[in-house]
Design goal:
With 191 residues, the protein is mainly alpha-helical. The protein has one domain: Hypothetical protein af1432 (Orthogonal Bundle), CATH 1.10.3210. The chain is 75% helix and 0% strand. Helix 3 packs across helix 7. The chain is globular, with a radius of gyration of 16 Å.
């Protein structure tokens, strides 16, 4: 595909995700767009370039990886997200082969579900998802305090455990190198 066309598709996908986050029907509001999707897309692109993955597929998958959670709900959001991604990308006339790659990345991005990741693109998305947790620590606290109804001491433990799990899920040394200063800060502040 021509570079301008690809950039246009990526921009349309980004805008679609942003618009869905802005809707009153979005359970989590606009903050996931700022605190999760943007860092996720940045880490994905950075890792894809370093690891020689398909940057275009990875960037699109990064924007769409949690769209199922935003539009439908957290339960099985990897499955609903892959379905939404396929529909959206077909509307944009994105190539079928690349749509399948994006869908596979979305289906296998969740660290809590131990799916076998066969491609570097799938693993980049999983790593970037884990890495983005370190950019949105206040979002982790919000989820613990507001959505999970934990007290502040339980929330602190819960956030620390989530971030520690995110660190342990990283599969590439490049991912660890990028996020290590934030991980070390979390250890100092929350342990």
């Amino acid at each position: 595909m021509k570079i301008k066309m690809v950039e246009n598709i990526i921009e349309q996908v980004r805008k679609f995700v942003e618009d869905e986050c802005k809707k009153p029907t979005s359970k989590y509001g606009y903050s996931p767009y700022l605190g999760h999707f943007i860092p996720m897309a940045n880490y994905s692109k950075q890792l894809a370039e370093k690891l020689k993955a398909d940057v275009e597929v990875v960037e699109i998958a990064a924007w769409l990886h949690d769209i199922g959670s935003i539009m439908i709900g957290r339960k099985d959001h990897h499955i609903t997200g892959a379905e939404i991604a396929e529909k959206k990308l077909k509307e944009l006339n994105y190539p079928d082969k690349k749509i399948e790659m994006v869908k596979t990345c979305i289906l296998n991005h969740r660290g809590s579900i131990n799916n076998h990741k066969e491609s570097v693109e799938e693993q980049v998305i999983a790593d970037a998802d884990a890495m983005s947790a370190f950019d949105d620590i206040e979002g982790q606290f919000e989820a613990s305090l507001v959505w999970e109804k934990k007290n502040r001491f339980e929330a602190r433990k819960m956030v620390f455990k989530k971030l520690e799990n995110s660190w342990n899920k990283l599969s590439f040394q490049e991912s660890r190198d990028i996020i290590k200063p934030r991980y070390e800060a979390v250890i100092i502040l929350l342990k």
